[in-house]
Amino acid sequence: MEKKPLFQKWKTGLGKTRTGLLARLFASKDGINEAFYEELEEALILADAGATVTERLLDELQTAIKEQKISDRAGARKALAGLIAKAVTTRKPFSADTGAAVLLIVGVNGVGKTTSIGKLANSYREQGRKVMLAAADTFRAAAAEQLGEWAKRAEVAMVRHNEGADPAAVVFDAIASYKAKGCNLLLCDTAGRLHNKANLMNELGKIRRVIARELPDIPCETLLVLDAVTGQNAVAQARAFAEVCQLDGVILTKLDGTAKGGVVISICESLHVPVRFVGVGEAIDDLQPFNAELFAEALLASDGE
C-alpha cells in the first residue's frame, strides 16, 4: 500500500486523539510561548501519553526549538513528530517478518484478541504465508467457534479441542498439523484469565515448553493484545502480564475509537516493549503493522494534510 493512502488510514484512525486541544494547538498562528507549552502538556496528558513521558518530550522539544531556532508552531510540530517517532521506534527485529515463526497471543477477554488473530491470519495469508491457528483458549465458552469463523474468513487451517481441554495439548496437535501441512506461521490463541496469575503462568509456561520441544528451531514470540480505549489501564494490564510471562510485543486494538492514542508512547517508553500492530478501523485489513513515523505524523497532522 502506498504511503499516502496508508497515512490517510492512520490519520483517520487517530482522528479522535487529534481533535480538541492537540489540533487547535498546532493550527493556531500564535508563536511559541509559555501558553503553548502548557497547552501541549495538557493535550499530551489527555491523550494518555503519561505524565513522565510528557515531561520528557516537552524538555526535549524545548531543547530542539532553541538549538534549531524554531520560531513557529509548524516547525515545533515537525520537531515533536520526530521526537515521538524516535520514542516509539524499535530496533528489535520481528521474527514473523523474516521467516517461520510461532506467535503466542495473550490478553484478557474483551480486548479484541480473537479478532486480532483472525486479521493477522488473513494478512499473512495474503502475503503468501501458510498459516495455522491453534484454538488454545479452551476456557471461554465459544472461543473456538469464534476463532473458527475467522479461520474460514481468512481461509486458513485451525486445530481445536473440546471446551475445557488442556491448552498445551491443543498446541501440540496444532504443531503436528503445522508440520504435516508445511505451514510456516503458527498463531496460538490463549485464555485471558489474568485474575488468576498462577494458573495463567502455569498454562503459558506449559505451552511454551511444548513449542520449544516440538519446534526447537522456530522462534516463538508472545504478543499482548491491549485495548487502546482503556488508556493508562492498558499500561497497567501490560505490567501485570509482564509479571506472568515474557512479552515480546503489543497489539493495540481500537486505536480509532479513542482519544487516548498517546498511550502508544507510554507503552513503548514505560514497558520497553515494541508495539507491533495497531487497529485503525473495523475492516479485516485495518490491523496494520505499526509504523513509528506514520503514527507520529498522523497524531499531529492538521485536517488540511
Explain what you see.
With 305 residues, the protein is of the alpha/beta class. It has two domains: 3-87, Up-down Bundle (Four Helix Bundle (Hemerythrin (Met), subunit A)); 95-289, Rossmann fold (3-Layer(aba) Sandwich). It has helices at residues 3-13, 15-18, 21-27, 34-46, 51-67, 73-87, 95-98, 113-126, 143-154, 167-180, 197-214, 232-244, 263-271, 292-300, and strands spanning 101-106, 131-136, 157-159, 185-190, 220-227, 249-253, 275-279, 287-289. Strands 3-2-4-1-5-6-7-8 form an eight-stranded mixed sheet, with helices on both faces. β2, α9 and β3 (157-159) form a beta-alpha-beta unit. α8 (113-126) runs parallel beside α9 (143-154) and α12 runs parallel beside α13 (263-271). The protein is elongated and about 65 Å long.
- By CATH, the topology of the largest domain is Rossmann fold
- Portion of residues in beta strands equals 5-15%
H/E element sequence: HHHHHHHEHEHEHEHEHEHEEH
Main pleated sheet? 8 strands, mixed
Structural class: alpha/beta
The overall pLDDT average reads 90
Q: What is the fold's blueprint, element by element?
A:
Elements: H1 3-13, H2 15-18, H3 21-27, H4 34-46, H5 51-67, H6 73-87, H7 95-98, E1 101-106, H8 113-126, E2 131-136, H9 143-154, E3 157-159, H10 167-180, E4 185-190, H11 197-214, E5 220-227, H12 232-244, E6 249-253, H13 263-271, E7 275-279, E8 287-289, H14 292-300
Helix pairs in contact: 1-14, 4-5, 5-6, 6-14, 8-9, 10-11, 12-13
Summary, kept brief:
By secondary structure, the chain is an alpha/beta fold.
Short key terms for the protein model shown above:
Rossmann fold; Four Helix Bundle (Hemerythrin (Met), subunit A); 305 residues; 8 strands; alpha/beta; elongated; single chain
